[in-house]
Amino acid sequence: MSYRIAAPDEYLAITGMNIKNVLITKAAWVWPFQRCTRFSVQPHDYAMNLQAMTKEKLQFLLPVVFTIGPDVNARGANSRFGNEPHTGEHAHDEDRGDALMKYAMLLADSSEKDKGAQYLENIVKGIIEGETRVLVSSMTMEEIFTEREEFKRRIFRNIQGELDQFGLKIYNANVKELKDAAGSTYFQSLSQKAHEGATNQARIDVADAQLRGNVGEADRRGQQERQIAKINAETAVQKTDRDIERAAAEANLATQKTNLNRDVDIARIQATRATESRDEDLKKDVEVKRHHRP
What we know:
Blueprint: E1 2-5, E2 10-16, E3 23-25, E4 27-30, E5 34-40, E6 44-53, E7 59-70, H1 88-91, H2 99-112, H3 116-137, H4 141-146, H5 148-163, E8 168-175, E9 179-180, H6 186-291
Helix pairs in contact: 2-3, 3-5
């Protein structure tokens, strides 16, 4: 009898006396007529370049990378025993729904076939390839493109459904961009079409921008010219009004000067005549007095 402890990334698979199927635990006493096997639960990356065919018989390559490993969280009755010896009284509690038990049974099968990790990889890649091809064959290329996220979710769901029977879980899935298969130019044509469309649209955008710029410039120039013409017209009107006002003022001044000169002349004439009239009166007085002298 010996006490076995698993490493942090390991579990122990114990079989033999008083164990109906397999006991999965982190630590346990291993009794005589029992066998203890360590197995790692580290996930592995499975990269594939799948060749698939759509509903319209269009072939393409689908690069995928799945990170898959034992589902350490889906434990059944096995997880209750801990370090207790798995005696007959607990044998009926063994739970074949335990993911790690399923995984341990898969490893045991591969060990018997002496294929090890390659055996597990072939099973996983076979499931990924088979489920992906089945799903793609039921969809059109347009559906794959327009419903890209739904396509990824369906691949994930279908593959996970098959992996469940082996106690495996998808920890990460990366579905990359679709590529042309040998002899196909579908995606190349799409890319070229998209590029030409983007180039043409860019040219249209540039032409539209130039048109808007030219129209805007002409509009601003026209507005400027109209504004200048309006200002010039208003200035001319104001100048005319000032000239009229100045001419009226000058005419009024000339009239006033004429009237003043006339009044001055009239006053001078009247003064001259008054003077002459007094002179005549004085002369008459002198003559009258001369005639009346004794």
